[in-house]
What we know:
By secondary structure, the chain is α+β, with helices and mostly antiparallel strands. About 30% of the residues lie in helices and about 25% in strands.
Amino acid sequence: MCKFKNRQVPPQMFFTANPIIRGVSTFVKRTSRAIHATQVTMAPIQVGDKLPSVDLYEDSPANKVNICDLTNGKKVVLFAVPGAFTPGCSKTHLPGYVQNADKMKADGVAEIVCVSVNDPYVMAAWGAQHNTKGKIRMLADPSGNFIKALDLGTNLPPLGGFRSKRFSMVINDSKVEELNVEPDGTGLSCSLADKLNYKK
């Protein structure tokens, strides 16, 4: 027996015998199981795929940059880093692209883009520290929507949780022409500026 306001209440009063409610409950359970069973597993973006249409931010939350619009009809080099101001990104990854920017653009690259799961103010400050103006577009992906759409994210608790894997890509007319993802997600090897084959 269950107590309710000091009265003895039979346990069966908490269960309904109404067949309509029982039917609805069964339907909800079955639908929930079906949805769970048919969830689509994402696969990382591949060479030949079109970029997802996602807004990134440059300098401030008011300045949206749609990545498909930015890459439409152009050759663009994009590289992503686990975090602004982190040692590997600041000492090696970003500086390599800054040093090679003029050569890349002379060879036909219209834009060079750096993306990180940071806010746009942080990306702007990081870019200013490395003199990226006129060379590299520092685009923020604050909620990680772009990186999630590419399925190239990773969990890095010391950096706050969800971040981007370290990778580079050559994009031609919004399609991925070359993709280099670091094997461990954070290393500094295949995604460096001097490893990129952008002259195709």
